[in-house]
């Protein structure tokens, strides 16, 4: 959610996707609700988006779908939504980490097969998608995309032929999948939600009157005026029908201690007004700031956050330390994806287009600047420099995450190790590179506490992967 993630400084991570599904039992059209739901999830993916809807009372194979490259408000016109009739549907926003950024790879995927039509939207990356894809290709499957979501869709469609219902087919497919996936699936008469057994990515259930909703984040429920019902549990499959919500937990881990929620959802990806598995994202960020204040105190006059996701942690730091919280940056919210990125030499001016320092707030002060992460370090160095130019006497950088050291194979676009500033460097060396007076990171031991004590994935910081990582880098492997 950090507004600097337009990659001006090449220094922000991206989440892969957001998913949304709805089934209106009263038969109302759902396309425009999906559109607003996707709007609330736009921070999870800005490259492409799409909607597919169907009528549970209509012919089994009839689906209207529309997708394209760009933000929701760039892709959809009023007439697209008006022409999509149906009371069940799924939607998706995407940023590509596996499979290239093309319209063919946009989701939802719509698949016609012997039992009717499936619409599928997926958030996460599979670690065994290349093998599964190869196996399918050897048995004659022809793929239209290069995304692993199509591998999932194929497996569900195949399994459906030998299973009594679509949720059993999803369970059968899940036995073959390894990696991160939160799925919303529309079958002719059912809306299905599923989460991988580790629960890497969020997925929640909501309700508005007689309509049930599945969404990546709870903020999307509020946007459409729905009530939060509960989270889909790691490994759980839910089937929403006229009879209500049926749950299948056969794929849940026998011991929930092995679950591995992506801790970066709390630190950065999710919107602060969302809750992930019962833990408020805003509260988690406040807590991270408090921990920083406890573990690495420093004397200063002002605590500021790098907007947006650094702000809550900065407030937490201020509350714990008693040092006043303030605003040091004014951002320009109108720098969109199509911003013409300058060459390396003028990156500083590019950051200035996005972010300005409030001179009168920082001049002559010892400033603590809180950011959610340092990836390559380029943006951090520029912002520290901007604070000094504006007259800050000292700049102390605190990061509300541990140092990034390892790649993610579960759907987060962490660059190769040699591009990570923390790789092979001490904290002191990084401090020197970004030009700060002091630098400290959130301690590893604090992460689980920050996430409300839930079992989490910390692999990009610790190198301890909850699932055996692939031997080679699988990201983009189909293209290769
Ligand atoms: S490796 Fe990092 S970014 Fe990837 S799922 Fe684990 S915590 Fe999240």
TrEMBL record:
InterPro entries: GATase_2_dom, Ntn_hydrolases_N, PRTase-like, PRTase_dom, PurF, PurF_N. Its cofactor is [4Fe-4S] cluster; Mg(2+). Keywords: 4Fe-4S, Glutamine amidotransferase, Glycosyltransferase, Iron, Iron-sulfur, Magnesium, Metal-binding, Purine biosynthesis, Transferase. It catalyses: 5-phospho-beta-D-ribosylamine + L-glutamate + diphosphate = 5-phospho-alpha-D-ribose 1-diphosphate + L-glutamine + H2O. Residues 17-243 form the Glutamine amidotransferase type-2 domain. [4Fe-4S] cluster binds at residues 262, 408, 457, 460. Mg(2+) binds at residues 309, 371-372. One of its GO terms (biological process) is 'de novo' IMP biosynthetic process. SUPFAM superfamilies: N-terminal nucleophile aminohydrolases (Ntn hydrolases), PRTase-like. It is an enzyme of class 2 (transferase). Its EC number is 2.4.2.14. It holds the Pfam family GATase_7. The active site is at residue 17. The keyword Iron-sulfur applies. Binds 1 [4Fe-4S] cluster per subunit. It comes from the Bacteria. GO terms for molecular function: 4 iron, 4 sulfur cluster binding; amidophosphoribosyltransferase activity; magnesium ion binding. Pathway: Purine metabolism; IMP biosynthesis via de novo pathway; N(1)-(5-phospho-D-ribosyl)glycinamide from 5-phospho-alpha-D-ribose 1-diphosphate: step 1/2. Catalyzes the formation of phosphoribosylamine from phosphoribosylpyrophosphate (PRPP) and glutamine. In the C-terminal section; belongs to the purine/pyrimidine phosphoribosyltransferase family. This is Amidophosphoribosyltransferase. It comes from Enterocloster lavalensis.
């Amino acid at each position: 959610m950090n507004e600097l993630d337009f990659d001006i400084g090449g220094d922000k991570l991206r989440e892969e996707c957001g998913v949304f599904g709805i089934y209106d039992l009263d038969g109302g059209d759902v396309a425009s609700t999906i559109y607003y739901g996707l709007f609330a999830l736009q921070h999870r993916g800005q490259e492409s988006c799409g909607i597919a809807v169907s009528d549970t009372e209509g012919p089994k194979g009839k689906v209207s779908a529309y997708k394209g490259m760009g933000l929701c408000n760039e892709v959809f016109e009023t007439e697209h939504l008006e022409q999509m009739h149906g009371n069940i549907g799924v939607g998706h926003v995407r940023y590509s980490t596996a499979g290239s950024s093309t319209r063919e790879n946009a989701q939802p995927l719509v698949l016609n097969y012997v039992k009717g039509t499936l619409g599928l939207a997926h958030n996460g990356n599979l670690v065994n998608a290349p093998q599964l894809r190869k196996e399918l290709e050897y048995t004659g499957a022809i793929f239209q995309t290069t995304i692993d979501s199509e591998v999932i869709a194929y497996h569900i469609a195949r399994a459906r032929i030998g299973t009594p219902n679509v949720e059993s087919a999803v369970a059968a497919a899940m036995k073959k999948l390894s990696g991160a996936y939160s799925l919303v699936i529309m079958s002719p008469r059912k809306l299905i939600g599923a989460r991988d057994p580790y629960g890497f990515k969020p997925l929640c259930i909501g309700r508005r009157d007689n309509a049930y909703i599945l969404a990546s984040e709870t903020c999307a429920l509020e946007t459409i005026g729905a009530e939060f019902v509960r989270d889909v549990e790691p490994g759980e499959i839910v089937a929403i029908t006229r009879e209500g919500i049926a749950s299948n937990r056969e794929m849940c881990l026998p011991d929930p201690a092995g679950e591995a929620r992506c801790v970066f959802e709390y630190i950065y990806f999710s919107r602060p007004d969302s809750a992930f598995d019962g833990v408020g994202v805003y509260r988690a960020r406040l807590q991270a700031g408090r921990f920083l204040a406890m573990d690495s105190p420093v004397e200063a006059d002002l605590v500021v956050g790098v907007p947006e996701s650094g702000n809550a942690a900065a407030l937490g730091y201020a509350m714990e330390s008693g040092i006043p919280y303030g605003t040091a940056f004014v951002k320009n919210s109108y720098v969109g994806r199509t911003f013409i990125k300058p060459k390396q030499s003028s990156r500083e001016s590019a950051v200035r287009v996005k972010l300005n320092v409030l001179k009168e707030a920082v001049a002559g002060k010892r400033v603590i600047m809180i950011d959610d992460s340092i990836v390559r370090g380029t943006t951090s160095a520029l912002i520290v420099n901007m604070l000094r130019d504006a007259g800050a006497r000292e700049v102390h950088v605190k990061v509300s995450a541990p140092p990034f050291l390892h790649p993610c194979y579960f759907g987060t676009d962490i660059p190769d190790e040699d591009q990570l500033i923390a790789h092979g460097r001490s904290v002191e060396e990084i401090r020197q590179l970004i030009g700060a007076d002091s630098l400290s990171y959130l301690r590893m031991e604090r992460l689980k506490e920050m996430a409300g004590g839930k079992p989490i994935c910390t692999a990009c910081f610790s190198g301890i992967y909850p699932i055996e990582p692939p031997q080679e880098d699988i990201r983009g492997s189909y293209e290769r």
